[in-house]
Amino acid sequence: MEGTLLPLSSPSTSSSKFNHRFCLPSSLLNHHRHSHFPKFPPKPKIDTTTSLHLPLRCSLRASTLALDRDEASVSGTPDNGLPRVDKTGRFSSPRAARELALSIIYASCLEGLDPVRLFEKRMNERREIGYEFNKEKLLEYNHMNFGGPPVVVETYEEENELLRNIQLDAAIEEEVLAAPPKLVYSRLILRFTRKLLVAVSDRWDSHIPVINKVIPPNWQSKPAEKILELSILHLAMSEIAMLDTRHQIVINEAVDLAKRFCDGAAPRIINGCLRTFYRELEPEA
Predict the structure, then answer these.
(1) Is the dihedral of CA 200, 205, 207, 213 positive or negative?
(2) CA–CA gap between residue 220 and residue 41 (Å, rounded)
(3) In this predicted structure, what is the pLDDT of residue 83?
(4) Residue 106, number of CB atoms within 10 A of its CB
(5) Does residue 10 register a pLDDT over 80?
(6) Position 62 pLDDT exceeds 60
(7) Could you give the CA distance from residue 187 to residue 279 in angstroms, rounded to a whole number?
(8) How would DSSP label each residue in 143-210?
């Protein structure tokens, strides 16, 4: 696809390296320009005792995370699954850094910008007059909120309650992910996020042929429909190759990101792609 940001693009004559590497066709750009992570599906028209194709909130589980030397003092999420915050009330979990990095990569694909420059732009943006962020939302935000199989309900009351909970979760996620990063993430996490984005930017071109080798044909034929999935691959591959985080941790984190923000078989496919990537990378190392 000519001009696409994804790892299937052909060379461009553009004078700006990143305008080519991080851009989409104008028709897709107009469609996605104001989009964020995929929203939950709208309320379906159903009969009672019908299987609803809505995300099922899975049981929360702790995540064992590790960072490189600079991030060694940051641990994972607590046992209740809620994000860890530091004494200033900001996220201090490495998972939050990876989520933030993914959102920046995704936006850079749509806007045609280098992700590091886009991150710095977001960091330096002025807040709107009167804007206030409710930090209590950080305690309600759940990094382990995964989708699941269809949910079966018996009554309209159960359906309405389920949809209401989904809408509440979606509103919290939207508010947190759209807030100025300095209000949401600790300084340590923001530094880690920038390191992730620098690694992605540095390795983007070299990872394109690698990704082309490991992704399934249907992803190659419709890359614009797999922006998030391909962004997760770039993020994980760059962290393994550049930051020396243990590959088991990175792959688990990438699969969890896919469970949160992607559909269908994406978590399984991403898991397989990254394991293939690491097996081929290991002899070189």
Answers:
(1) positive
(2) 25
(3) 58
(4) 23
(5) no
(6) no
(7) 34
(8) TT----SPEE-SSHHHHHHHHHHHHHHHHHHHHHHHS-HHHHB-HHHHHHHHHHHHHHHHHHHHHHHH
